[in-house]
């Protein structure tokens, strides 16, 4: 059981390190979005995907270790969580404390990660709105304005001005 506990603490430490790396990448992504550096944004995205892949592998490993610990304790593996494991360790206060600290650190890093992701989401939405505004502005500049000509029923005829922009005939 002691080796499983060490392995679990190690996996949780590696997960924390990956989340911290993602936090750094999130800060770099924010800077890239602000500078509109698409090349850098692409590189950061690749690095984020690599870190996410590592986190998935670590999550699978953590689940396997927790399942092994549940089997040793005679508990149902599918119901085992870190919080439940902390509860089972009341007779081993040192291991319980270490596991609680790792859990708290992971929760703290996860909260930071969520905050950065929300900030980046807002920045990306604003950047997309700005691009959409620019495109609309460019499209409107290429269209000629409509004339204020009306037919005998008082409906706008919707005629467009010619390329000269001014019609001297009245």
Description of the structure:
The protein is an all-alpha fold. The protein has a domain at 2-117. 75% of the residues lie in helices and 0% in strands. It is built from four helices and no strands. It has helices spanning 2-35, 38-73, 82-88, 93-142. Helix 1 packs antiparallel against helix 2 and helix 1 packs parallel to helix 4 (93-142). It is elongated, with a radius of gyration of 30 Å. The termini are far apart.
- Order of secondary-structure elements: HHHH
Give the biggest sheet. none
Count of helical stretches: 4
Average of pLDDT: 85
Query: DSSP strand (E) fraction?
Result: under 5%
Measure the end-to-end span. Answer: 97 Å
Total beta strand runs: 0
Specify the helix fraction band: over 70%
Please summarize what this structure is:
It contains four helices and no strands.
List descriptors:
170 residues, 4 helices, 0% strand, mainly alpha
Any chance you could write out the topology, listing elements then pairs?
Blueprint: H1 2-35, H2 38-73, H3 82-88, H4 93-142
